[in-house]
Amino acid sequence: MPIDRATALRNAEKLLRLGRLDQAIAEYRGVADDQPLDWKTANAVCLELRADAGNYRDVAARVHRLAKLQARG
């Protein structure tokens, strides 16, 4: 079942303001996983937050996945 993108993004922003980085990442990840071609969320938000949290392996895996999706067209 598709997620409500707007609600998920609002929740993520609220979690960021509260300093709950891991929970915010989970919300953004849900949006990115549900809508893999949503480059803005995937690149500008998810990857940066994961890097800030020190999740470098996750960042590398996500970049690889995005590159493969973009290569497919």
Write up what this structure looks like.
It is built from four helices and no strands. With 73 residues, the chain is an all-alpha fold. Helix 3 packs antiparallel against helix 4 (56-72).
Write the layout of secondary structure elements.
Layout lengths: L4 H13 L3 H14 L4 H14 L3 H17 L1
Helix pairs in contact: 1-2, 2-3, 3-4
Short description:
The protein is an all-alpha fold and 73 residues long. The protein has helices spanning 5-17, 21-34, 39-52, 56-72. The chain has 4 helices and no strands.
β-sheet strand percentage: under 5%
Distinct helical segment count: 4
Average pLDDT reading: 82
Strand-and-helix sequence, N→C? HHHH
